[in-house]
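Look over both lines:
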Amino acid sequence: MTTPQRSDGLKPARLDPATLKQNFRDAYPPLDAHEATVAADRCYFCHDAPCITACPTEIDIPLFIRQIATGTPEAAARTILSQNILGGMCARVCPTETLCEQACVREAAEGKPVEIGQLQRFATDTLMAAGTHPFTRAASTGKRVAVVGAGPAGLACAHRLAMHGHDVVIFEARPKAGGLNEYGIAAYKAADDFAQRELEWLLQIGGIEIRHGEKLGAQISLATLQAEYDAVFLGMGLGGVNALGIPGEDKDHAEDAVDFIAELRQAEDLAALPIGRRVVVIGGGMTAIDAGVQAKLLGAEEVTIVYRRGQDAMSASGHEQEHAQHKGVRLICNAAPVGIEGNGSLTGVTFAYTETRDGKLVVTDDTFTLPAGQVFKAIGQTLSGAPDGLTLERGKIAVSDSGATSVAGVWAGGDCATGGDDLTVTAVAEGRDAAEDIHRTLMA
């Protein structure tokens, strides 16, 4: 009797709708009022709080936690949002374990930090649920600013400019605003369409118009924006994806992980999304983790993330790595892809073990092949379509500390600029700071 061969091809509805709903529910349920009070009570309210320094947006963390402890979460939210207007999303997706919570004094003393991220979510969710916007516009300045990209950097910049009384037009290539928050984050981190709900709340400031289907270098040009607006902010993120540069990369079902995540985030029916029985993800960052975990949650039986260096060199945080392993994702380190296999349909990926010699990564002749019906590439993104005349540095737009580019009247921030590091919170900080510099320049 022969054993039937199982297919590794893509197939929708590997799991029933009830299981999919359970798998993609909010991964980190919010604190209730009592839990928030107990969590806030653990804060030492340090005078020279290291958590503030560790936060890219420099939120006054001890102050907002004290405000929660005294029963005024709306005031806490204002403290947060005055520094980080996307504080609700950042509370959900920030790697707090390597930022504010890692710097927490209680983490150093006890190995258990104050739950800063969860407390931030409690405060911002409370305010948003009230349906109010805590900021108002200043009197109109008569100045108009163009913002390219409705991602975290562009939205933060636009909101701060609107607060100062400027009129802002955001040019967004995609059908929805939100950028990384809408298209690039695992669905279980921002459940219940939170990215769009936060966007709608942010726009309550007024003075911000979003025009969709407007891509820099296609429907609009930098020269046109410079001619029609008093200032320009570029926050379009990274549109290109790095190639593996190996044989077989063009096979069907060898896909970019960012496209997979975006498709999943926009899917109305998760059961309709096809997924392989055995999936291989190549990369070691947050995109690789998000793609791998979600492939598993969609019903892939075997998911393996393979990274070319050691596990300690992965840019994904230790917390996220542990989360992936908890969900059944296998991690293989010190292996680099050398070929995608298959005569017609994809059947697997061949890797070569790597070693570090004299500080350099060396690919050895020792190889192995992982069977797979689907491969996701997550080895980083690149800037595409940068306007002529801008100085580039390490493949990104070179900017000053305040976000000014080499072209007068043009600022940039977020992942497309040299300061960006693929974090929502950093993009928000850069958009906010650029807006302040734009305001100073326009009002001088």
